[in-house]
């Protein structure tokens, strides 16, 4: 396999300033793609760009609130104007509404909905004209939707499961037009997961013990590199799937 198998491709990655989004963006750039880094913090995005450019890749940064439809439209217009098109879309950004049903604030749920399934759908529709023919969409959901004990995670699971439904519909509706859409469920040591493991050490220890490989994944090597492969011609017949990148923990249905 040629290491530069995404050359002449443009990828849009949301939440690209840190964690899993950054890992995916770096891997795509290493494989030859020009990567549009989208996120709320321009400072964080510039760090990701410097890492990409240091490795010989190309990236542009666009500060955007994914909950704002107008900002998303302007961002995609800029990407197309500067790069000529879009072949890969990775929807990673997500505000996480955690808490029991009685405790979680409705504003948190609304932010989770707007930053997750609504932003995902909006970007899919904005990018659709450019993805037709050979485009790939990778949407991020979570194995939290497979938890037996959903206590404290119901709102988060709800917004993530909505993303899975939207993704499956796109795979079916747009597949004939040459657009593939898949979902990944990643476990990786992102800043959010790191904070969770520090704040809930006992739950985190139990969580890691439940992973057959007994470790949490790496953002670039375990998640990003798989996404790059999933975006390539080597995965051209993979469509409409939910793939857990979690060391074997979840049983996906």
TrEMBL record:
Family matches, as Pfam families: adh_short_C2 (PF13561)
InterPro entries in the cross-refs: SDR_fam (IPR002347)
Keywords assigned by UniProt, alphabetized: Oxidoreductase
Protein name as catalogued: SDR family oxidoreductase
Organism phylogeny: Bacteria, Pseudomonadati, Pseudomonadota, Gammaproteobacteria, Cellvibrionales
């Amino acid at each position: 396999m040629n290491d530069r198998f995404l050359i002449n491709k443009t990828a849009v990655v949301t939440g690209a300033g840190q964690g899993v989004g950054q890992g995916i963006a770096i891997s795509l750039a290493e494989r030859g793609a020009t990567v549009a880094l989208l996120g709320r913090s321009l400072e964080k995005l510039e760090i990701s760009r410097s890492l990409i450019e240091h490795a010989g890749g190309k990236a542009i940064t666009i500060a955007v609130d994914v909950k704002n439809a107008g900002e998303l439209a302007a961002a995609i217009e800029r990407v197309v104007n500067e790069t000529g098109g879009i072949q890969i879309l990775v929807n990673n950004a997500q505000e996480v509404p955690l808490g029991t049903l009685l405790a979680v604030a409705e504003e948190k749920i609304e932010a989770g909905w707007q930053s997750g399934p609504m932003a995902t759908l909006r970007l899919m529709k904005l990018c659709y004209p450019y993805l037709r023919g050979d485009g790939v969409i990778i949407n991020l959901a979570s194995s939290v939707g497979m938890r037996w004990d959903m206590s404290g995670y119901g709102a988060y699971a709800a917004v993530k499961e909505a993303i899975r439904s939207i993704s499956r519909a796109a795979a079916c509706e747009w597949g004939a037009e040459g657009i593939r859409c898949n979902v990944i469920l990643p476990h990786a040591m992102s800043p959010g997961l790191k904070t969770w493991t520090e704040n809930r050490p006992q739950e985190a220890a139990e969580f890691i013990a439940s992973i057959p490989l007994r470790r949490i994944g790496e953002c670039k090597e375990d998640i990003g590199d798989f996404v790059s492969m999933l975006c390539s011609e080597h995965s051209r017949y993979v469509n409409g799937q939910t793939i857990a990148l979690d060391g074997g923990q979840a049983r996906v249905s």
